[in-house]
Amino acid sequence: MPDSPSQLDQRKQALRAKAVATRRLARQSAGTALFDAAADIFLHEFGNLSGGISGSVIGGYWPLGDEFDPRPLLLRLASQGVRLALPAITEPGTPLTFRSWQPGTPLRPGPLGTSVPEGQDCTDAVNLLLVPLLAFDRRGQRLGFGGGYYDRTLARLRRRPNFRYAIGVGFAAQRVAQVPTGPNDAPLDAILTEQALTWVNPARKSASDPSPDQPPTFF
Length: 219
Prior knowledge:
Layout: H1 5-28, H2 32-47, E1 57-59, H3 71-79, E2 83-88, E3 97-101, E4 107-109, E5 115-117, E6 128-132, E7 135-136, E8 142-143, H4 149-157, E9 165-169, E10 190-192, E11 197-199
Helix pairs in contact: 2-3
């Protein structure tokens, strides 16, 4: 029998307390080389996929607290001419809005401690999304802070034919046996850590084959 909404919330809150501590420890022991390693992994993997990331609009995020820092990856993507966007909370209970951003562009304080760009809204052009997380499992299910912003955002983006992948970004230590989930929780297509980019659903991956000496990585 599925959990009731209150039971599901209790299970998520219990895991959230543990996941916050796990992520804090992982972040405290992380050096910049770790974030550079994740950037190397991402760029190598997408060099093996059909179309790569040329012409993509990638929705990233500005790290909050102990979140895995994607900025080394964002800087390298920008240096290759990739268009970037960062999220903004416009209203509670609605999907995130993504606004264009490039390194050096000022950010202003936003709701819930976020940093928000002033660029134009390009939400509907985003075709690859980097998603922060508290915990993840082998199914690509993600635990966040409970606001549901990314679940609503993915529901919106996945209705658009140009959207390709939602990639969770976190420390390898944040993997758990199972994330409690409900009907509105949106799974990810892959997880990027300092160790690997791991595809959850092979059917979502590009049809092009990686080079023979670089087989795809799946859970």
